[in-house]
Design a protein that fits this description.
- By secondary structure, this protein is an alpha/beta fold.
- It folds into 2 domains: about 1-115, Response regulator (Rossmann fold, 3-Layer(aba) Sandwich); about 125-235, Winged helix-like DNA-binding domain superfamily/Winged helix DNA-binding domain (Arc Repressor Mutant, subunit A, Orthogonal Bundle), CATH 1.10.10.10.
- About 40% of the residues lie in helices and about 20% in strands.
- The protein contains 9 helices and 13 strands.
- The strands form 3 sheets. The chain has a 5-stranded parallel beta sheet with strand order 2-1-3-4-5, with helices on both faces. The protein has a 5-stranded antiparallel beta sheet with strand order 9-8-7-6-13.
- α2 (about 35-40) runs parallel beside α3 and α4 (about 85-90) packs across α8 (about 185-200).
- It is globular and about 55 Å long.
- About 35% of the residues are buried.
- The model is unreliable at about 225-235 (pLDDT under 50).
- InterPro entries: CheY-like_superfamily, OmpR/PhoB-type_DNA-bd, Sig_transdc_resp-reg_receiver, WalR-like, WH-like_DNA-bd_sf.
- This is DNA-binding heavy metal response regulator.
Length: about 240
């Protein structure tokens, strides 16, 4: 895997470069935002490990520029912030996932596997629920006719909810579906990802589609009807 590590703290940069190289990855590094953007003009990567607190340009700025360029690499954001709104901000700007410092190396490897997992070729299936349309084959999402840009991780979460439409998807099932069955990632990471998806899929619209089942998990259904009604409304064209 080709990985660009963007980190200004020398010790962390050294640890990441050495650890990833020992696991067989091809690693390049940058120590600030402008250098990172210059490197990405000349090189293609599978993943960009992007620290938020960079000098020059912040990690948020770098993520935004990369997505505006349609840069195809997955972005895994590294942040010392443990505030949900800061993490959601990064996801909304185009990061595919995030890690809060300090983190374990096995957790980092699990996140890398998640954001680079091959997307299986989907049949030409379009799901409709209320005013939401999901085109699996082209990985496009619309609501009220408005296109909604989702990261790879957000789209995976949405697909998992669609597969159990009208039913509660347990937290552990969602975590394993997104980050892998051997993942030790906790519920907090899932909650942040769900809130990021909600900020795009629910917040700008009048009716909620993503619902919380306290102590259990999450479900996708319309507020207009119960889960059984929503199962019938979810049409495949």
């Amino acid at each position: 895997m080709r990985i660009l590590v963007i980190e200004d703290e020398p010790r962390m940069l050294q640890l990441l470069r050495r650890g990833l190289s020992e696991h067989g990855h091809d690693v390049m590094v940058a120590v600030d935002g402008p250098q990172a953007l210059k490197v990405t003009l000349d090189h293609e990567f599978d993943v960009v490990l992007l620290d938020v607190g960079l000098p020059g340009l912040s990690g948020y700025d770098v993520a935004q520029v990369l997505r505006e360029r349609k840069y195809s690499a997955s972005i895994l954001m590294l942040t010392a912030f443990n505030k949900e709104d800061e993490i959601v901000r990064g996801l909304n700007l185009g990061a595919d996932d995030y890690l809060t410092k300090p983190f374990s190396f096995p957790e980092l490897l699990a996140r890398l596997r998640a954001v680079t997992r091959p997307v299986p070729e989907a049949a030409s299936t379009i799901y409709e629920l209320d005013d939401l349309t999901i085109d699996r084959a082209h990985r496009k999402v619309c609501r009220e006719g408005r296109s909604i840009e989702l990261t790879k991780t957000e789209f995976t979460l949405l697909e998992l909810l669609v597969h159990r439409i009208g039913q509660v998807a347990p937290r552990r099932v969602l975590i394993e579906g997104i980050w892998g069955i051997d993942s030790d990632i906790g519920h907090g990471a899932l909650d942040v990802l769900v809130n990021s998806l909600r900020s795009k899929l629910d917040a700008p619209f009048h009716r909620r589609l993503i619902h919380t089942a306290r102590g259990q998990g999450y479900s996708l259904h319309s507020e207009a009807g119960g889960p059984e009604t929503m199962t019938r409304q979810a049409a495949i064209r």
